[in-house]
Write a structure and sequence with these properties.
Largest sheet: 4 strands, antiparallel
Number of strands: 8
Low-confidence stretches: none
Order of helices and strands: EEEEEEEE
Strand content: 35-45%
Length: about 100
């Protein structure tokens, strides 16, 4: 029997989407057993994760369009997103952020 190396993985949980634009889009809190998220967006955005109400700014974590990112969170935290600022390197357009809770 042969063995092969496997990628670390988690089970997909609830997936939510939020639409973002120049104004901040906020999402409800994550589930009580959520410690990791998988994020992906169809347009470049900046996002902020934390306790209580969050307000993303162009100075927060950048997520390029079409990239999948895994982040560690605590149960009960929330997320907000805003389209990336246009600075000559990124074309800022409204888009959708997919948030999948991992377990």
């Amino acid at each position: 029997m042969s063995f092969f190396p496997k990628q670390s993985s988690s089970r997909n949980g609830t997936t939510q989407t939020i639409a973002f634009d120049a104004s901040v889009a906020a999402l409800s809190v994550f589930g009580p057993e959520t410690y990791q998220l998988r994020l992906s967006a169809n347009s470049a955005c900046c996002y902020r994760i934390g306790d209580g109400a969050q307000t993303a700014t162009a100075a927060d974590a950048f997520l390029p369009a079409g990239v999948i990112e895994h982040v560690i969170v605590s149960p009960g935290q929330g997320i907000s997103a805003i389209k990336a600022a246009t600075n000559g390197l990124v074309t800022a357009t409204a888009g959708t952020l997919w948030i999948t809770e991992m377990s």
